[in-house]
Design a protein that fits this description.
The chain is of the alpha/beta class. It has three domains: 39 residues; 201 residues, P-loop containing nucleotide triphosphate hydrolases (Rossmann fold); 170 residues, Ribosomal Protein S5, domain 2 (2-Layer Sandwich), CATH 3.30.230.10. 26% of the residues lie in helices and 24% in strands. It is built from eleven helices and 21 strands. It has a nine-stranded mixed β-sheet. Helix 8 packs across helix 9. The radius of gyration is 25 Å and the shape is globular. The chain starts with 6 loop residues before the first strand and ends with a helix. Bound molecules: thymidine-5'-diphosphate and magnesium ion.
């Protein structure tokens, strides 16, 4: 029998490596690779004892009718799930420590329990009394959620198997430990084993299981990414600490659209749902100022307007600052390069600061034109028309490319009182409502039209 070899695993992304290295080539994280004890060897190769059962594809639909979803009543949460919890599904909710994961899930579990479903909340992080204190603060003490403070995986499975609730929240997967795995709680091996057992339990029993996973900065604790592939749905709860807005985003969903967002506001009494995020993200806009552009975006299935803010200032540094918050910095560098080489507008010697108001994160390429608009407006010290929204993708040649769902973007903009839209010439529109549409073929044309210079 071959000698078991120790393996090295990245705690960020779970990639396996032959030897230790300071940086993981798979995800680029530093100091995230740890040594793992070899798995115990099985009985060896060859055929297994039992034969698996096969069923025809056509038979599945009649054998197992699609399960009804259970809506928790927290609408923003249900929407991100694709319309509610699917029985037997495994959901991972990841996010930075302190962002509000426990608060959100306690509220969701309580809402579900108030509707008559059985909900269990297992916490390895807080004592029952702490959770009760939080529940009191959130006004949830009357909700029939049952609490447990268990971290032993085997005991948790026994409990859940006996109780058979509709929903079990396990907070967090990094605190669980299985006596079958010889590694510390929080290690990649433990987190994977716990997630695997709980996902298998969910499928077998029909209990919807939500696993909470902290996004970790230090390499010793495995992050939620190492279990993403096992679960049906992956949600990330994000937001800036300094802002009260929190966004729940689905990055993978076997039962609904990925990329859907739910918007919440952290208040003294817990998380409040935000039904109209555009109004919220634009609420801080005052008088028209240079460097501000309103982007008509789409997040998942719904349109969301956000304000892109830019500040451009003379730099004293040899390599000027490029500080980008809430936008892809690679994308921003590309736009700066296109402005320099295609439009002849240099940004050398200038510090550039860019962010999205309210702590929102925008990943759509459709935001390119709004980013360019904010940058130019800041550089020229000339405000964009305050009643205008922008969208369009910028290609390396400086041409503007059309984007998806233009009508939805315009409709949302109109609803919020905007009367003008600046968009690519090639954008096809089926009706533009009452909006004034300014079509631009390329970035040079946009610069000339809006800022009166070539
Ligand atoms: P928590 O849900 O414990 O975060 P996580 O489980 O993701 O680590 O949220 C902690 C933060 O939320 C804490 O800094 C305080 C804040 N908070 C409020 O502002 N209002 C509230 O009603 C509650 C319960 C928490
Ligand atoms: Mg917590």
């Amino acid at each position: 029998m071959a000698k078991p070899v120790t393996s090295f695993t990245c705690t960020e992304c779970g990639a396996a490596h032959k030897k230790w290295a300071g940086r993981c080539d798979a995800c680029g994280a530093w100091n995230s690779i740890v040594e793992e004890a070899p798995l115990a060897q099985g009985p060896g190769r060859g055929l297994g004892a039992a034969r698996g059962r096969m069923v025809p594809l056509a038979g599945l639909a009649t054998d197992e009718p699609p399960p009804a979803r259970t809506a928790s009543g927290v609408e923003e949460f249900d929407r991100v799930l694709g319309g509610g919890l699917v029985p037997g599904s495994a959901i991972l909710v990841g996010g930075d420590p302190g962002i509000g994961k426990s608060t959100l899930l306690l509220q969701a579990a309580a809402a579900l329990a108030r509707r008559g479903a059985q909900a269990i909340y297992l916490s390895g992080e807080e004592a029952g009394s702490q959770i009760r204190m939080r529940a009191a603060r959130l006004g949830l003490t009357d909700a029939p959620v049952r609490l447990g403070a268990e971290t032993n995986l085997r005991d948790i499975l026994t409990t859940l198997d006996a109780e058979k609730p509709d929903l079990a929240v396990v907070d967090s997967v990094q605190t669980l430990w299985s006596d079958q795995v010889q590694a510390a709680p929080g290690s990649v091996a433990q987190v994977r084993a716990a997630a695997h057992e709980l996902v298998t339990f969910a499928k077998r029993s029909g209990v919807a299981v939500i696993l909470v996973g902290h996004v970790t900065k230090d390499g010793q604790i495995a992050g939620p990414r190492v279990v993403e592939h096992m679960v049906d749905t992956v949600l990330y709860f994000e937001g800036e600490r300094g802002h009260q807005f929190r966004i729940l985003r689905s990055v993978k969903n076997r039962f609904g659209p990925a990329g859907e967002i739910g918007v919440f506001e952290m208040t003294g009494g817990g998380l409040a749902e935000v039904a109209n995020p555009s109004a919220l993200f634009l609420s801080e806009r005052g008088q028209p100022v240079a460097g501000s552009a309103v982007f008509a975006g789409i997040e998942g299935t719904r349109p969301v307007l956000t304000e892109v803010q830019a500040l451009v200032a003379p730099s004293t540094l040899a390599s000027p600052r490029r500080t980008v918050v809430g936008l892809d910095s690679g994308r921003v560098s590309t736009i700066l390069a296109v402005l320099e080489s295609r439009c002849g507008i240099p940004f050398a010697g200038l510090d550039v600061f860019l962010n999205v108001a309210g702590g929102m994160r925008v990943a759509e390429p459709a935001a390119d034109l709004a980013i360019a608009g904010a940058l130019l407006s800041a550089r020229e010290d000339a405000p964009l028309p305050p009643e205008a929204v922008l969208f369009g993708e910028i290609s390396l040649s400086g041409a503007l490319r059309p984007v998806a769902q233009a009508e939805n973007r315009l409709k949302e903009a109109q609803k919020l009182g905007f009367s003008q839209a600046i968009l690519p010439e090639s954008q096809r529109l089926e009706g533009d409502g009452a909006m004034r549409i300014a079509r631009m073929a390329d970035l040079t044309g946009f610069v000339g039209e809006v800022f009166g210079a070539g």
